Target: SAM-dependent methyltransferase
Amino acid sequence: MDTRQFYVNPIGVVHAGGESCSIEIIEQYRPALTGLDGFSHILVLWWGDRVDTDEHRSETVCRKPYTKGPETIGIFATRSPVRPNPIALSTVPVLGIDTAAGIITVPFIDADDRTPVLDIKPYIPATERVRDVGVPAWSAHWPQWYEDNWGFDWAAEFTFED
Model:
């Protein structure tokens, strides 16, 4: 078993709240935005810093996170940032990019305000989109396309604990 340790540097931060969301890129990484304009969507890898605890990192199974899901489910079968490495992935539409200021404006992102951003990649249909996808029966009624999420009641799908 390989037990090497890895070091990750944030490349930016999420600004979420109010009526706008954006990703602010640290100045030294702003040149990396060159050529990103023209892509309608990006993949944002972010660090779940608010759940980065030894307890959460050791969680491998959780109790019924999905309303119609099984009573217990392995953490790798969820999109939760609570996992051995709290890395999360979001696909978001790009509304605009200000390369000089290092700001990518997005309509929303499922990360909290001030969440560290680890990396950004362009969404490329040839590598991200899959034609024949299989999902468990308990999630088969979820939208099949990103754009169909807008009218879907996602809050009814989760068993969030307060």
